[in-house]
Specification:
The chain is α/β, with parallel strands linked by helices. It has 15 helices and 7 strands. About 50% of the residues lie in helices and about 10% in strands. Helix 8 crosses helix 12 and helix 11 runs antiparallel to helix 12. The longest helix is centred in the N-terminal third of the chain and has 30 residues. This is Stimulator of interferon genes protein.
């Protein structure tokens, strides 16, 4: 089974600022070395390098600008402003232009770092032109890590769209109605009422890492059996009157034969990810599919945790595909989450009465209060005593009379 520690080890964390810190440290060491070797030419070299690094992207931006203005100005930009939209889209933003202008001014003030002025300009223009060439050919293109960081930061991955579609088009509609559906189901199925617990009244959403979904859970595990469907929810949606949304109730048997009723289903958007990995035209292999599944899980979890309509009405279960050799892996994973929910129930047992006259009763009370070890899971206790009024302050003037 996939425990919480293993689950945390599978889910990738957001990328941090370590590349920026490493680059700043490397630049500081390099500048310090230049200061020790030739401090009189430091500002000239810095201005020269900054101008080379900024002039190259500016030339490449001009090449991109020619394509956008000639072929895409109407279809992609709809006649929007050149300065406000097209130039920043081509990399000709204010930051790059400002850095290039300040570097050129600094180079003009401090002088050229090379002995011959002609060598300085040759190096400047040659390096900038070659940068634009290599950038256009893809030699200096962004790495996969950079592309992944950009897509995750701007929410541009396939998994982001699928998670939001799953939430807005399905979960946000059905989860607020889930409790009423289970109540109506229990009213019509009196024999199943003892098998419903507090943890069973949530929608269990299965998310396998391999995105391979079976349409019948009993085909995956013979300890899981289909019982019945919850009452249908009919919602007017996108021009369809009374569109039907339904959930299936399954019975899960543990090793001791105990039966649990639960509402469980796979996350249907994973079918899209799996089918995309089977299509060569999608350019979506197995490693990319696994990465998108993990990103789908983290995105959906973040969306649901911040949703007031869906809070405490769901449970995401991440399934590791490394345990396919266990025929009862699916039922064990479901039972583990159900039992965890049962342990999180609030303890509403009233405390013993405060006024105890008999010594033996006092001893039993102390034993009752101190018998619970500190290592057990905490429970929330509610006092059933009536609230007492606050005591009014009483003024005592005897102390003041003693000093008089």
């Amino acid at each position: 089974m996939l425990c919480l520690q293993d689950q945390d080890a599978l889910i990738p964390r957001p990328r941090g600022a370590l590349p920026k810190v490493s680059a700043a440290a490397l630049a500081a060491v390099t500048v310090g070395g230049v200061v020790l070797l030739s401090p009189q030419r430091l500002f000239g070299w810095v201005a020269m390098v900054i101008l080379i690094l900024t002039l190259g992207p500016l030339l490449h931006g001009l090449c991109l600008l020619a394509e956008e203005l000639l072929n895409h100005s109407n279809t992609r930009y709809r006649g929007r402003g050149l300065l406000s939209v097209v130039l920043p889209a081509c990399g000709l933003g204010g930051k790059t232009l400002s850095a290039a202008g300040l570097a050129a001014l600094l180079l003009f003030l401090v002088g050229h770092p090379l002995h011959h002025e002609g060598q300085c300009w040759k190096l400047l223009f040659l390096s900038s032109v070659l940068y634009a060439l290599f950038k256009s050919l893809g030699v200096l293109g962004p790495s996969e890590v950079e592309v992944s960081d950009i897509c995750e930061g701007r929410k541009m991955n396939v998994a982001h769209g699928l998670a939001w579609s799953f939430y807005l088009g399905y979960l946000r509609l059905v989860l607020p109605r889930l409790e009423d559906s289970i109540t109506a189901f229990c009213a019509s199925h009196q024999a199943s009422t003892p098998f419903w617990g507090r943890g069973n009244r949530k929608l269990l959403i299965l998310i396998p890492l391999n995105a391979n979904i079976s349409h019948k859970l009993e085909d995956e595990d013979d300890s899981i059996h289909f019982y019945d469907n919850l009452p249908n929810n009919e919602i007017d949606r996108a021009g369809v009157r009374g569109r039907v949304y339904k959930h299936s109730v399954y019975r899960v048997h543990d090793e001791d034969g105990k039966v649990y009723n639960c509402v469980v289903e796979y996350a249907t958007p994973l079918l899209t990810l799996y089918n995309m990995s089977q299509e060569s035209r999608a350019g979506f292999g197995e490693p990319e599919r696994r990465q998108q599944v993990l990103l789908f899980y983290t995105t959906l979890q973040d969306i649901l945790e911040n949703s007031l309509e869906c809070r405490n009405r769901y449970k995401l279960i991440l399934l590791n595909d490394e345990h396919e050799d266990d025929p009862h892996f699916l039922s064990k994973a479901i039972l583990r989450h159900l039992q965890q929910q049962e342990k999180e129930e609030f303890c509403l047992t009233p405390p013993p009465h405060q006024e105890v006259a008999h010594p033996l009763a006092n001893a039993l009370t102390d034993r009752w209060c101190c018998s619970e070890p500190m290592s057990r899971e905490p429970t929330l206790m509610f006092s059933l005593d009536k609230p007492q009024p606050l005591k009014q302050p009483v003024e005592n003037t005897d102390n003041y009379q003693g000093f008089m």
